[in-house]
Amino acid sequence: MITTPTVSTDVIPGQYWQWRDQLIYYVRAGERHPQRPPLLLVHGFGASTDHWRKNIQELQSDFEVWAIDLLGFGRSAKPKREYSGQLWRDQLQDFITEVIGQPVILAGNSLGGYASLCVASQCPSTAKGLILLNSAGPFTETDPRPEPPLWKKAVSITMRSLFRQDWVSFLIFQWTRRRSIIRKTLLKVYLDPSAVTDQLVEEIYRPSCDPGAAQVFASVFKSPQGEKVDVLLNQLSCPLLLIWGEGDPWMNCRERSRKFHQYYPQLQEYFLQAGHCPHDEVPEQVNNLIRSWVLEQV
């Protein structure tokens, strides 16, 4: 393991770990407990370790807490490559093995939930438990979709072809990374507008200015879909907690909940009055749920 000198955030000191010749940013808080596994917090698309600041502050009194910036996001490197759940699975597995040094409870939001599920399912020796907060990822289609009209199919093919053009994805990235657009997007996916602060907007905007950020954005949307969630759930063997912000406009939480229950009925689950990022919008509720559930498992 190679580290560089410690750097600081607004909340807690962080440092870098070198992985596959790339620098990966992470933070660590709290003390190791012999009877409790560490927590590893994994952010969603466009976010970073900063998005967990309210959770780290509270949970560090009871747990050793780690948070990591996935390759391509936050303060981590943004090399040109194909980004996928498999890549982040490998990153998280190596981080747990090389840096943390023992199995963890993984907690992931959105894209970070999907990456965490990949780790817990496919690298079971690294995970003591899994917490998914509005987790992303595709399920296998069990019912055939009705065939769209020919004109709709043609428009869809044309749009996909356009988006694969580098100049198109670059223009879309430049538009979406504007502070005003970031704020408008957050106001759509948070139920409580007071949670959308200038600090939150800046935490998402800042990494978008890094060299390579536009290429990461394009790669995530161009990469093939990863393993289906139902396949991963069939491989899962550790305890599972689902936390939903049921006001999420990006996903039908109740419908996804039914699918999770279908493939992993022994899970525990809670629905909260929040949007896509309940850990940041209603952190006290989420922290209490995480604390109680983890202590039940050990």
Could you describe the 3D structure shown?
The protein is α/β, with parallel strands linked by helices and 298 residues long. It contains 12 helices and 9 strands. It has a 9-stranded mixed β-sheet, with helices on both faces. Helix 1 crosses helix 12 and helix 2 packs across helix 3. The longest helix is centred in the N-terminal third of the chain and has 16 residues. The radius of gyration is 19 Å and the shape is globular.
Strand order of the largest sheet: 1-2-3-5-4-6-7-8-9
What ranges have pLDDT less than 50 throughout 5 or more consecutive residues? 1-9
How much strand? 15-25%
> What's the overall geometry?
globular
Question: Can you give the mean pLDDT?
Answer: 90
Count of alpha/pi helices: 12
How large is the radius of gyration? 19 Å
- Taking the alpha carbons of the first and last residues, their distance comes to 29 Å
Topology order in helix (H) and strand (E) letters: EEEEHEHEHEHHHHHHEHEHH
Biggest sheet: strands, sense, closure?
A: 9 strands, mixed
User: What structural category do the secondary elements indicate?
Assistant: alpha/beta
Q: How many E strands? A: 9
Tell me roughly what share of residues is in helical segments: 40-55%
SSE layout:
Layout: E1 7-8, E2 13-19, E3 22-29, E4 39-42, H1 53-59, E5 65-68, H2 85-100, E6 104-109, H3 111-122, E7 127-133, H4 150-163, H5 166-176, H6 179-189, H7 198-205, H8 213-222, H9 229-235, E8 240-245, H10 253-263, E9 268-272, H11 278-281, H12 283-297
Parallel strand pairs: 4-5, 4-6, 6-7, 7-8, 8-9
Antiparallel strand pairs: 1-2, 2-3, 3-5
